[in-house]
Amino acid sequence: MITLQDALQKGKKVLKDNNIDNGEYDAWLLLAFCFELNRAAYLANPLKEIFQDDLDAYMDLIGKRSKHIPLQYITGEQEFMGLNFQVKEGVLIPRQDTEILVMEALKVSKDKEILDICSGSGCILLSLLKLGGARSGLGADISETALLVSRENAKKLGVTAEFIKSDIYSQIDKTYDIIVSNPPYIPTNIIPTLMEEVKEYEPTIALDGKEDGLYFYREICKGLKDHLNPGGYVFFEIGYDQGKAVMELLTEAGMSNICIIKDLAGLDRVVTGRWNEKKGEPFT
Ligand code: GLN
């Protein structure tokens, strides 16, 4: 006889032997996913008998994780801002750090028109629309896979949003009250040093910010004058060491009220700025 507990022990051992970070926890999460269990149901009956086929199905998922495939690409989902987002290979997995950006933007997003550049899974824009009472939202991404996933996420969350294929502003002609972006910001030469889960399985196109990591911030800042309304806000997620450089770009673009917001680990994570009613003059 095979039990749930046996399956879990086997799963933990395989992930440990393959040096998977947090392998014990991932073995549990995959068990919960595979058998549609929560912790209480498992603890109520860990000796519940399972069929060989079920064990095989579970060990198949464990096998994927042992090859460093991110857990979220195996389960197909990631929670973000308390909402469930679908993900798959080809789309960046939403990060907890990015919730900092959403929480800041939520303070001002009510009734606003929002543009999300490099929208990926749609996690930023859809959270703002679902939780912040924004008036409308447009997501722009160059990846067809990302566009499909974000449209699917909008449908599942019951949110109205448009997602279009655009290389930064190339297909965008309107102006917006808020521009948000978590663009690719990792310098190209750092990518080989990232965790295997990230560098092997997450899309390089969603990570690579070109030579100094600042390419997308520069391009987005150049277009602010044509795409941000007077009084409008910008929110960028940044790498921990990019705060000063991105503040300078916003200053050059004529923004005011520029400040950095730190994440829970105390690292610089978001840069925000606002435009005066007359663009280019300090906001008071
Ligand atoms: N905006 C998406 C996110 O924050 C995708 C970001 C990206 O592809 N760089 O997850």
UniProtKB/TrEMBL annotation:
Show which residues constitute the signal peptide.
none
Catalytic reaction annotation: L-glutaminyl-[peptide chain release factor] + S-adenosyl-L-methionine = N(5)-methyl-L-glutaminyl-[peptide chain release factor] + S-adenosyl-L-homocysteine + H(+)
Any one GO BP annotation for this protein: methylation
What region holds the Methyltransferase small domain? 101-185
Q: Which residues make up the binding site for S-adenosyl-L-methionine?
A: D141, N182
Q: Which Pfam families match?
A: MTS, PrmC_N
Q: Where is the Release factor glutamine methyltransferase N-terminal domain?
A: 6-76
Q: Where does substrate bind?
A: N182, P183, P184, Y185
What EC number(s) would the UniProt record show?
2.1.1.297
Gene Ontology MF annotations: nucleic acid binding; peptide chain release factor N(5)-glutamine methyltransferase activity
Origin: domain of life: Bacteria
Q: Which UniProt keywords apply?
A: Methyltransferase, S-adenosyl-L-methionine, Transferase
Query: Which family is it part of?
Result: Belongs to the protein N5-glutamine methyltransferase family. PrmC subfamily.
Function according to Swiss-Prot or TrEMBL: Methylates the class 1 translation termination release factors RF1/PrfA and RF2/PrfB on the glutamine residue of the universally conserved GGQ motif.
Name the chain's protein. Answer: Release factor glutamine methyltransferase
